[in-house]
Design goal:
The protein is an alpha/beta fold. About 40% of the residues lie in helices and about 15% in strands. The protein has a single domain, classed as Aldolase class I (TIM Barrel, Alpha-Beta Barrel). The chain has helices at about 20-35, 50-65, 75-80, 95-100, 115-125, 150-160, 175-180, 190-195, 200-210; strands at about 10-15, 40, 70-75, 85-90, 110, 130-135, 165, 185-190. The chain has an eight-stranded parallel barrel, surrounded by seven helices.
């Protein structure tokens, strides 16, 4: 399994609208991995359990062959079934303590903290491996999420030692200020996976990777 030191760099998140079929999904994820993506979160909110397990299992195999951390959004059962490296939990999902008991002892568990240091403090106290803040910019994935001020990353960096994820409307243009403010990982959906050609996806992944030169 992966150590916490691995939690740094480009953190891709899948989108079933951008990648509606297995072939498109695998091609675009492969392209991002070739560009240096370090972490992948499989996010699919549909009720198609057969497809979700099939895709998650295929992605886990692909990620592990490349040394990429593979997480599941929200669903602990799916994480167990596909042997993922861990889960990312929102505030309305299964409690961290429950997820920790059900998953492997060294599983990676991250928590969405929205724009709240109090939620972050609770997550860290309960043993979260990383904390995530956002959205920082207008987001197609979560347009109604509360807007998080940039200084929240600076505040969190001074208060917590666990890795920090920034999420929400991230592009190559605004990403540098997030890194400068303290984001260890940049969670990207549309700016990374919207292009239809894999060459562009690989190049974009490289541009994000290069924001963390020691992690290349």
């Amino acid at each position: 399994m992966f150590s916490s030191a691995f939690l740094k760099g480009l953190y891709g998140i899948t989108d079933s609208k951008l990648m509606p079929d297995d072939d498109t999904l695998l091609r675009r994820i492969t392209a991002a991995i070739e560009g240096g993506m370090k972490i992948l979160q499989y996010r699919d909110k549909s009720d198609d359990q057969v497809r979700r397990l099939r895709q998650a299992t295929a992605l886990r195999e692909l990620c592990h062959q490349a040394g990429v951390l593979f997480l599941i959004n929200d669903d602990v059962d799916l994480a167990i079934a596909c042997q993922a490296d861990g889960v990312h939990l929102g505030q309305g999902d299964e409690a961290l303590a429950s997820a920790r008991k059900r998953l492997a002892s060294n599983a990676v568990i991250g928590i969405s903290c929205e724009d709240s240091l109090d939620l972050a403090r609770k997550a860290v106290t309960q043993g979260a491996d990383y904390i995530a803040f956002g959205r920082f910019f207008p987001s197609r994935t979560k347009p109604d999420a509360p807007l998080t001020p940039m200084h929240r990353l600076c505040d969190a960096r001074t208060q917590f030692s666990v890795p920090i994820v920034a999420i929400g409307g991230i592009t190559r243009d605004n990403a540098p200020q997030l890194v400068t403010s303290g984001a260890d990982m940049l969670a990207v959906v549309n700016d990374l996976f919207a292009p239809q050609d894999t060459v562009t996806i690989t190049q974009r992944a490289r541009e994000y990777r290069d924001l963390y030169p020691m992690n290349s």
